[in-house]
Amino acid sequence: MKITYYGHACFEVEMKQGRILFDPFISANGLAAHIDISKIEVDAILVSHGHGDHIADAETIARQSNATVISNFEVASWLGSKGLKFHTMNHGGQWKFSFGTVKYVQAVHTSSLPDGSYGGNPGGFVVWDDAQCLYFAGDTALTTDMQLIPITCPKLDVAILPIGDNFTMGYRDATIAAEFIQCNRIIGCHYDTFGYIKIDHEAAKKAFDDKGKELILLPIGESLVV
Ligand code: NI
Ligand code: MN
Hints:
Elements: E1 2-5, E2 11-15, E3 18-22, E4 44-46, H1 52-55, H2 58-65, E5 68-72, H3 73-80, E6 85-89, E7 94-96, E8 101-106, E9 123-128, E10 133-136, H4 149-152, E11 158-162, H5 171-180, E12 185-189, H6 201-209, E13 214-216, E14 223-225
The structure holds nickel (II) ion (NI) and manganese (II) ion (MN).
Manganese (II) ion (MN) binds at residues 51, 53-54, 139, 167, 190.
């Protein structure tokens, strides 16, 4: 799979059978000013929870792509009420889509929608096809529920974990999350965008390196082929 970083917690993933986008927040992110959202064409948009820094560009990109929005019941229904294609899920459930299988898993965080609507409970996604498996944690604290992922899903090839602290786990806790999910290749997200989540990149990489794991911090607009 080819994973492209669009800043904050937004990633496009090209799989064998389609393209998906996680948590679109690009046009309001000054660090991602060089990303042209009008060029993004995906089959599905996976939204971890209702906060603006994960959903801001979901409607625009879903409309231009005719993409299906996949999220928890409340967030997907809210986007669906705007006339978008949508698929509702809830925690512990999985479904086979055209691009691969998606399992919606626990996250410890909150979820409200930009207009104040109830956003249900936040989650993360495990996505796989017959070749590879990816975990996108969403905004979350470190939680022992992560230990269920290697038990209930295919072996992970790569995981995207928040590392910025304050609103989510920081990189030290994320090294423990990497142990819980039994994954050695981690891509960091949810750091540097705002003042509260600016991190020391070298210290974060060293924390993972000390545990024999790799932390990848992609420049915005860059891709990684896994
Ligand atoms: Ni959030
Ligand atoms: Mn967030």
